[in-house]
Design a protein that fits this description.
By secondary structure, chain A is α/β, with parallel strands linked by helices. Helix content of chain A is 34%, strand content 20%. Chain A has two domains: 183 residues, Rossmann fold (3-Layer(aba) Sandwich), CATH 3.40.50; 138 residues, Rossmann fold. Chain A is elongated.
């Protein structure tokens, strides 16, 4: 009988997820003895009754490398250790269903799992691994906030989309002497904002790692207008950026507005427009960079299973594809050090961090 | 002495404005006796002291055809018939400065104006024309709300950007079974929304011309989820769309939010995300379609001046480049008739208008 | 029993074909009594044994609007009136198989055909129509060489791709003071070349409708270098362009080379590079413009069958969707008149046609 | 008096060159005592009489980060150690003009040079350095063939363009059951081809590092058609690829044709189309990745001059920005090892190298 691997997608969708799945399937096709099964919508596919699974052959992954998102779907809410189970009275009770999960894997003769996910997902992987599940993790985040791998696929696609947005805003800002504020993703980190600010030639970059003041922003903006009252300015702000000395934590989509409001409070008298990029950053055709990285990780994940190196994550480190134990992955968040090359580069071309 | 033409940009910026300017300059270069001068920032350039003008030769327009916005800048606030003049006490008084404008034109030996603008701008053109200024209008709007011309440059670029946004949102919506609401521009019309909805394959399209109800939207969305509880849906909403039977007029950027709020009020229990496209629709590299249209109009505008057909606007009508008198242009807003081909096409592929 | 429509794709592939198919299927889904069947690979699907057909429901057309080409495949070689039939000795004999085709349609209870194709394909439609087949044509060509419709889908996508190629070549030409020659498609017409030359800001545009001489090209190029020995130049040449006074008819891909060779023969001493754009012009994600046009035509084609207006083609004429009899379509090739707006516009901005 | 730095661009143009220049200028603007001068067209600007130089301030580099190529122009032919000097009889004599170069630098009070170039250029840098010129190199190549730096800007932009070309060809190949051959750049290496083949999902990848046979290609292609006679295939071939056991070295643009000819010779009976991507790979808007990398290197190059670390090149190695002596750079060509990750990844998803 063939050996079966289950692929599970967790967390927010990310350009390149399909390329990982495709790579696993194509790599497995070179061996004679393996079957790949996709779980629909995270762990739901293997936990629901009836199962929602998809047997994957080369035909089923044909053409998906150019598609964003994941054709197996994903969710970032349902953790099998704390799973929403509908009770007889229709209420929801959060329950550990991992015993059921392990039973279902056995029932289907699935001997291992490849789990594509972010920080939270790999905590689940680690816990499942401790319960004896043969699991291999693949890192995924558009936010670049996994410290353990040099690159995570999806990030460059998000940076490119954010940069193209800055490019577009520059032409319109320039035509009207405006200040344009672009809010980008990144959760608690400023990686996307920092990259897009340098690549797009922004004037101000606001990131969670460097708290800012409205006064310093005004100082920078006024210097742009000082010569003849003309000029324009671009601010790129990470959704997690915060004001210096305040505990204000705003939801995604609100920080750009707050900055505008405070600029007006301080009688900053130039036109301001905000753009919140939102889910546009997750979508669309993945960049070549991310497709290649995702393909490398997918091939490596399958080979990690061949070598029975379970309980690990496949990563890209110092130019090499390798594995690290899952316990080394968890609870590490990849914040930007203020001594990082790119902070120095940004300051070197005159970008203000509002600090 | 050479004859001088002043180019003035008015209203919001629009992909293709630079192509018009370039075409005027290159067409003029084929004649021996003409000079083209650009007024910086709408009529400000010719009204300010000292003047802010730019003499334009072929070198100064080299490479600008690929650029969005306008390198001469524009503004949509300062009408010479009601112009903000700073008083000695620093207050602003709105004044008719058109006599000064005419004097300045004479002072600079400028014999005619090419005025690139939208609805509001061409009212100014018409009034200036009645005061004896030799003026030729060029229609400009990303909103397609000028009824008198078949196409206005900038519109196809805006539609393409909006459609690519829908494409991106589809992959992420699909991965999470979400409803995604995209708010696009269009002022009081639904042209951009209607085109993007058809091209992007949206499920619901909400436009000012067809008031909608939240119940009809829910009906459509639920039908997408009815089979197995899975599915995703895209709503494209024009910034000027409005609820049936209500007088609610929301500012740009708020209608998508309002729809989300009302869907939740009605206990619609699927994930919803909003994206407000905003100024991204104005920016970036103009599409080939708009560059060609803008080039045609620029050449035609210069030739209209050669033929001394002042007080007219150059338009594209039934496949021909032609002119119409400015008095026929004003106060005509190009709304979508509910009998329009595209409404029928949209309904034909199952798009709901929420009516 | 449901009524069945067969969709057949013929000729070269073209961005927007999938959108037509999708529109027919989605429009049919609004009626209760219709089934749509796709013939795989032109008429082969209905002529082969076993049949190669695909029953199409809304699910099967989900997501295809963004895809170039046609998921039903197409061919531009196998005409049922002169069809390559393999003989018992494995040789090929060209035979009229239309009686068999009609028999097969009856066998499958197919009552009508929607035929998406170009000039050659619609001759077949007309002949089938005369033999009693209920057929409706949909015009398709990236070359814009169907005179009977104002626009054919695919053309704007091809123009946009060609224009982006010019944009790319401009930056590299500029960096090296080079002459760059870009060969584009168009068969016997210069539509793509003319549009890309205007939109891309080319210096020289060579099209079949205006034979050119190498001397006139050199004259134009030298004027670009005359001031300081620096400069660069872009030539856009249609694959069907031809030298004045010669009968030389070159295959696609050879005219750019021939021009380079002749420039060198005449001791034109600047660096020259050629790019042949080839099949890149057919591929990729269709532009919004083409998706909308294709959707309009697909909906109209289905409704034409509802109204039993067989033997016609759906077209876009003077802003309206309508039908014309197939006999009026055939043998009309849409050449560019030298009095066309766009020729005048191109000359107006100084583009040389080498004449 | 201010200290002056000369920026020189050499070799083929490359997306990101403008970003390097911009970064140097903006970084210098933060210091009080520096002036940046651009040499037009490689070393020509400083060697010609009169000089062709451009004093660069922040305004002169505004907006150039989005532009491909280099606004200072470049050439890959004129080496100051072997420079084409026009003689009194108009003949050209190749002469060492470096003494003149050094004299001119002194004449203009230029104390150091930043030299942006590829392999050949840095040999010149090294030789100039040995003659006492204060020079700092910045690596530039779209081909990724500089072994000493992990990344060179321009490469990811070239890979992305090549990948998008594969994406376009896939849709048209698929619609016609064709074989499509795409020839990409890379000189003597296969980096661009290998990346584009993985990212685009090609079937065959031919690179200089792995000589191939036509028989092995046919074997792979036939396996794609073996099931039902349908299918399509994509071949990505590097311009420097070569046949096993042959000394045939073809010029760029000819290898794709040669493969087609040999496939036909062997009676391979499927439709084949070739595309030669050529200079399209150099042009256009640089990717965010390359803009950031180029900006980092530009800032670093200026700071290297501040620190007087002359005779070095700024590089990106193991995630750090650093410098290495120029003598370690030269004569190192970055070929792909057959044990490289990416070769294994490519084989892992079934890509054939024709070996």
């Amino acid at each position: 009988m063939k050996q079966r691997i289950l692929i599970v997608n967790s967390g927010g969708d990310c350009p390149g997820m399909n390329a990982v799945i495709r790579a696993v399937v194509k790599r497995a096709a070179l061996e004679s003895n393996w079957e790949i099964i996709g779980s629909i919508d995270g762990f739901d596919g293997i936990l629901s009754s009836p199962y929602e699974l998809k047997f994957l052959d080369e035909k089923s992954v044909s053409g998906i490398i150019v598609k964003g998102g994941t054709f197996l779907m994903t969710n970032n809410k349902r953790n099998p250790f704390n799973y929403p189970v509908k009770q007889s009275d229709n209420s929801i009770k959060y329950t550990d269903v991992t015993d059921q999960l392990i039973k279902n894997l056995k029932d289907l003769n699935i001997s291992s799992i490849i789990h594509i996910g972010g920080n939270e997902s790999h905590k689940i992987s680690y816990q499942l691994s401790k319960k004896g599940v043969n699991i291999v993790g693949v890192p995924k985040t558009i936010n670049n906030d996994l410290s353990i791998t040099d690159y995570s696929f999806g990030f460059q696609s998000a940076v490119q989309i954010a940069t193209e947005a800055v490019d577009k805003l520059v032409t319109t800002a320039n035509s009207h002497n405006r200040v344009l504020i672009l809010e980008v993703m990144g959760r608690n980190t400023g990686w996307i904002a920092l990259h897009a600010a340098i690549a797009g030639g922004a004037d101000v970059c606001l990131i969670p790692e460097i708290p800012f003041t409205i006064e310093k922003i005004i100082e920078k903006l006024e210097s742009r207008y000082s010569i003849d009252g003309r000029g324009f300015a671009n601010i790129v702000v990470a959704e997690g950026a915060r004001f210096k000395g305040e505990n204000l934590a705003l939801s995604p989509g609100l920080i750009a507005r707050e900055i505008t409001a405070r600029l007006k409070e301080k009688n900053f008298n130039h036109d301001i427009r905000e753009t919140i990029l939102g889910h546009l950053q997750r979508g669309g055709v993945p960049m070549a960079f991310d497709r290649i990285l995702a393909t490398e990780l997918g091939v490596k994940a399958f080979e990690t299973i061949l070598e029975k190196k379970f309980g690990t994550m496949t990563i890209h480190k110092n130019g090499e594809l390798t594995n690290i134990p899952l316990e080394k992955v968890i609870d590490k968040n990849n914040k930007i050090e203020t001594t990082h090359n790119l902070i120095q580069t940004a300051k070197g071309i005159g970008i203000s961090f509002g600090d």
